[in-house]
Amino acid sequence: MSVTLDFNNMMAETVGVHGITQKQFEDYSNMAKCAHGAVEANRGKGMQEWMCSPYNQSKVVKAINKTAKKIQRNFENFVVLGIGGSALGPIAVFTALKHLYYNELPKKVRKTPRFYVVDNVDPERMNALFDIIDIKKTAFNVITKSGSTSETMSQYLIVMDMLTEKLGEDASKHIFATTSQTKGNLIKLAEKYGFETFYIPEGVGGRFSELSPVGLLPAAVVGIDIEKMLLGAKDMDEKCKADGIYVNPALAMAVLQYISMKQGKNVGVMMPYADSLKYIADWYCQLWAESLGKEVDKSGKMVNAGQTPVKALGVTDQHSQVQLYNEGPFDKVITFLEVEKFRSTVQIPYGCEEFPNVNFLCGHTLNELISKELFATRYNLAKRGRSNYTIILDEVNEYNIGALLYMFQLQTAYCGELLNIDAYNQPGVEGGKNATYALFGRKGFEQLAREIEENKVTGKYIIK
């Protein structure tokens, strides 16, 4: 089991003038050591408590596995109510490690509850869920650290009302809470109604929470071995305790992206060549954007830092986005995710001998086709001077997914230090939240409500 980084196609000797020279890369070695040292110095402190996730959860894991078994026995459906990291992480891990048509499998094959994540407040989608599940046979995992996330708490209120109407006092047996142990509305509701509860460590933010109970409970419910995930994360952490840019893959990626940003490559594409890894890209987009997209640095200087993440899927987006990547602006770094050994092999049969432009495929496998298309795309991009690197998983399993997620979290933390920004806050998100509160007339936001009313757009530039 392994996760490997190949960054040859980032280097000038492969991609030419738009690449990074070996000297440039090594010139940042000392800066990288400082970034690494800063991250290590804060290990387990403040908002870096996520670095403890691979090590200190044996009791939590035991409790989660026990609860997961109970949910598997008693419920046919398991629904996550959450948004941001509370949804993107569970979706990414579920899709990576379970059958790609899991919910459609018969129960005797699936063995564990059907799995759904409600990560938006679109009324049609919310209603559609209730069209396909029997709420009396469904467990709901409400995930919000603050307990005041408008989207998640509105979903909770809807679900709790429906459960109470149908089940009375037994409604509480269908709710499992994941929240802060010390503060917030959800912990108070859990105490009031007796919801079984798991706690999010105070120093673990949403986008860094997949290896906490936020992600571990949903994974365990669908039969994923969470101990193997944590072992993969632990081994990656041990590997990345080295501060050398030719040894620590997360540090190498952080330096490569940092130099690329300085070169004007302000778009970062993640393109897995495996449907199982499709939603890893979604999860990574939040991690990278919300952590690094900052107006000011730690000194208060205006920097408008960050790199815009874009998700793509190989080979699908060879037929939609790769044209731009090959011939558009030199403003992108493309991260490929490659799988060496798929869990299935599909043969391409003979049957088109009269068509040479199809017959060449016959006798090969879809495994070969997706692998060669990745190689061809990577080769052509490099030939055109387009920067890209590849993360190679020998196979998709719990150990490798745990290692991969943890590596990306470390890369993000290192890059935050290189950029000298706070990778753990999100002031740009708070403005929108506060405006929503004001629009709903929430107490304490009256001044903002007046400001919004005074600055309403007149509608001058509207075409109907």
From TrEMBL:
Function: Catalyzes the reversible isomerization of glucose-6-phosphate to fructose-6-phosphate.
Major enzyme class: isomerase
Protein name, UniProt field: Glucose-6-phosphate isomerase
Pathway membership, UniProt: Carbohydrate biosynthesis; gluconeogenesis; Carbohydrate degradation; glycolysis; D-glyceraldehyde 3-phosphate and glycerone phosphate from D-glucose: step 2/4
Enzyme Commission number(s) from the entry: 5.3.1.9
A single BP term in Gene Ontology: gluconeogenesis
GO terms for MF: carbohydrate derivative binding; glucose-6-phosphate isomerase activity; monosaccharide binding
GO CC field: cytosol
Catalytic site: 290 (proton donor), 319, 433
Family listed: Belongs to the GPI family.
Catalytic activities: alpha-D-glucose 6-phosphate = beta-D-fructose 6-phosphate
Residue ranges crossing the lipid bilayer per the database entry: 78-101
Domain of life: Bacteria
Lineage, highest ranks first: Bacteria, Pseudomonadati, Myxococcota, Myxococcia, Myxococcales
Xref: InterPro entries: G6P_Isomerase, Phosphoglucose_isomerase_CS, SIS_dom_sf, SIS_PGI_1, SIS_PGI_2
Organism annotation: Candidatus Fimimonas gallinarum
Entry keyword set: Cytoplasm, Gluconeogenesis, Glycolysis, Isomerase, Membrane, Transmembrane, Transmembrane helix
Compartments, as annotated in UniProt: Cytoplasm
